[in-house]
Amino acid sequence: MDRRSFLKLSGVAASAGAVGACSRASQKVIPFVETPNDGANPVDGDWYATTCRECNAGCGIIVRTVNGRVKKIEGNAMHPVSRGKACARGQAAAQTVYHPERLTSPMLKGAGGFEAIGWDKAVDILSQRFTEAEGKLFFLNNGANDAASGIVSAIFGKMDGFVSAGNQEPGFETLRAGGKDLASFPRMPFPDLDHAQFAILFGADIFESGPSPVFWGGAFGECRRGRASVRGRLVYAGPRLSATAAVCDLWLPIPPGRLGVLTLSVAQVVVDIIITRKLASSIPRNALGRWSNALREYEPEKVAAQLEMMPEHIRKLALPFVDESPSVAIAGADVTGHANGVAALDAVEFLNMLSYEIGREKLRIHERLTPEPNDDLKRRIAGALGVDHEAQGFSRLADLVGGMEQGNFSMGIIHHTNPVFDTPSGLKFKEAMAKVGFTVAVSNFMDETAAEATLVLPDHHWLEAWSVQTPDFVPGVPVFNLQQPVIRPFFDTRSGADIILAAATAAKLKTPAATTEAFVKGTIKRFRAEMHGAPVYLDDNAFNRHLLRNGGWWPEQIETEAAPVPSGTVLWEYRDKLKAPEPEFDGAENPFYLHPFQTVHMGRGQGANSGWLQEAPDPITTLMWQFWVEMNPATAAKLGVVEGDMVKISSAHGSITAPVFPYKGIRPDVVAVPIGYGHTNYGKLANGRGENVMTLLGAKRDTVSGALAWRSQKVKVEKAEGRTKMLRNAHPEGEYKGEVFQL
Amino acid sequence: MNFSKLSPTARLLILFLTLAGMGGGAFAGIVYFGPIWLTTWAPAQPIKYSHKLHVETNKIPCQYCHTYARRSEISSVPSADRCANCHEYVKPDAPEIVKTMEYFNEDRPIEWVKVFDLPDHVWFNHKRHIAKDVPCQKCHGPVETMDVVSRTNEFPMGFCLSCHQENGAPTDCWTCHT
């Protein structure tokens, strides 16, 4: 730059500075018109208890608000699910309240795209549609058990033609279905990791996905450090060293779909140990002998080759299962993600039964096999919130899509879920949605599904809204979670459930309450008498306040008494289930197993529009703001690619390109791709960032439960054009890249 | 670039631009820091509120309205509901009070113009000073005698330091510059 232009520029800059600085003189102090709450502290703020709704785990949280603005989210220490902790996604909800892309006005799709309409008109249109639909409508949410689903079921539940379904995380359905024959109530298995000394995780990525990463994180802390003289030991078996596997003591890279075989092989060795050591158990001797024979085909020597392990390593896994009792087996995504998932889950259940039999200390691992003291209450709370477990599964979703295609519905309500993005392309949800005359999307953001809807209703953020929720997986504890508005709504949004109520009232339908708040309070009143431990002397208003202060109700003491185990004779009936069928794969001729996985940040893609979550490094790869495919360095070398090179991954259903991240913690025949990237209509932070791995999947399902077998896809991988710089925060093998301490 | 080879016009232009730049900078400085230098900064407020009338004549303590001074970092300007508490009954017909109640009834906040301010790199905590019984007037001047609040103090660093030294308060940099 020459002197002249420098001087010119400095003159311009000085004048611009002078103009900009003028505002300094007239700073305003703008107090509230009304103090928000007696004793509100403008700096330290107030803490309100509520329930996190980023997923369906139902973590109790406390939220710090200052001057009517959300500042910080933490776990509620009294809550049985969160135990005072909150995950990254829960904490990032404090940012999404202020997201500039939040929807602020109801929108109706016309010839020229969406057009903003007023709330009155939106209610009018909705009520008219309710009248015209005459019950021929569907309600699809994310599988949540909450006020909205309770209200919708109460209004439409009894009408012919009404279908309610949940687009739940894949795998939950299989978790419920496993051991169903012995369980009195199909519910999630919830092994007692807290008190276990030895745990085998069968592909269970429990700290990053599944029913509740926060709960399992707390259980892991208890298992490792909660006891003075015991350090719990964990072994992870599965094709990829996930963030969960990374904190375990040992990783066994088992081929995909073979975890049932490994489980039964371990069980066979355990049965033999019980017989040879004459361990005390309630199982009759002859039953043990018959089991041993029934499991003979799973002897370590016979299955070692297909597991790509040495027989003595399987025995080494079974020994501590007996010696370091109490021990547990936990099944997860690599079990439920395959078409033989239910069979493998039955095997895991069987292993847990054996553990219970020989355990020096009794764990709560049998909660599925016998009725619990609180079962009935749990079921009734869930029932009041419109929960029907069958409705939360993939089978019901697939049936719904079939019904949509056949034109069974004249309208549909899609409530806070994005099936166009996060269901496999083989399901063809988008195409089916187009065949429904009128679809309503209740959402905070424009997303791929809302874009396909006819009417979009911007909901309050869950931090601004009333609801009641119940998680269905916590063993022995009925949890009645309350969700209260901790701030006044930030935009001109309305509670989706309130709008449905208003429209239903206008359509002269019978509604359970006038507003969501009234529904929540009515539900409290309904169950109040059974909330043991809550003060009985309070009047209704004071009781509501008491529950709101705590964030809800749950028994103070978790029932710890072990449930009686079925006798050996009953268990013998189980023997036919103890089989590990060959895994089936879609596109079996392709060379690589596709391993889609959830990260704690992105979830199923909901996290992709959050700056905080995109910025947070992935726990394994330390990548930020970026999409990737993990493959073994040997595989990468064979394909002739290095870190950052693009590869094309293709199946019969579609193809994606992604930059390579070579990672030693993955089998050479597996490629792993994170779920939740590749949005096309979810705001500027999410759009075009990576590609959507769900487009590679057909809709292959578990042979027994009908759940989506989302890891049973094989793919082709080939080198593609282009290269990307990988935004790594650190080296995944640590600061010294494994060199210094290598022995 | 050789300066002597330039034409007289160019030299004049450079001289003019230099002066313009310096002048602009000075102007910016005055506008930016002016309110701090001009210690009689007494802006017009949306409501003609008189501290003299409330505090000196009617003996209402400062912290009746500035409730958070003893509880938090900031002293806070009262919400309109605090005005309404008394003025629903006390002189409800006075024109300024009618104006105040209009704000309250229409749910509109009163946008007061800030009189006292500290730069962003200074951290000040009201609560601690009140806990040590430092009178409000020590920093804010005799507000109780003013009909219109004016800035009587520009808060240079020496002002804070001298008081901290006299009273044995910490004088580490990070006490204020945290």
Notes on the structure:
- The complex is a heterodimer of chains A (743) and B (178).
- Chain A has 743 residues and is α/β, with parallel strands linked by helices.
- Chain A is globular.
- Chain B is mainly alpha-helical and 178 residues long.
- Chain B has a domain at 38-59 and 115-178.
- Helix content of chain B is 47%, strand content 1%.
- Chain B has helices spanning 8-37, 51-57, 62-65, 80-87, 95-105, 126-131, 137-140, 157-166, 173-176; one strand spanning 112-113.
- Chain A binds chain B through residues 2-4, 7-8, 10-11, 14-15, 17-18, 21-22, 24-35, 41-44, and chain B through 1, 10, 13-14, 17-18, 20-25, 27-28, 31-32, 34-35, 43, 68, 71-74, 76-82, 103-104, 107-114, 117.
- Strand 1 (28-29) of chain A pairs antiparallel with strand 1 (112-113) of chain B, so a sheet runs across the interface.
Helix/strand order of chain B, N-terminal first: HHHHHEHHHH
Oligomer: heterodimer
Mean pLDDT of chain B: 88
Share of residues in helices of chain A: 25-40%
Largest interface: A-B, 29 and 42 residues
Number of helices of chain A: 24
* Number of β-strand runs of chain A: 24
Q: How many separate structural domains of chain A?
A: 3
Give me the CATH fold name of the largest domain in chain A: Rossmann fold
Strand order of the largest sheet of chain A: 6-5-15-14-13-7-8
The computed structural class of chain A is: alpha/beta
Q: Please work out how many helical segments of chain B DSSP would assign.
A: 9
- Main beta-sheet annotation of chain A: 7 strands, mixed
Cα-atom radius of gyration of chain A:
27 Å
Structural class of chain B: mainly alpha
Kindly estimate the percentage of residues of chain B that lie in beta strands according to DSSP: under 5%
E-strand count of chain B: 1
Average pLDDT figure of chain A? 86
- Radius of gyration of chain B, in angstroms, nearest whole number: 23 Å
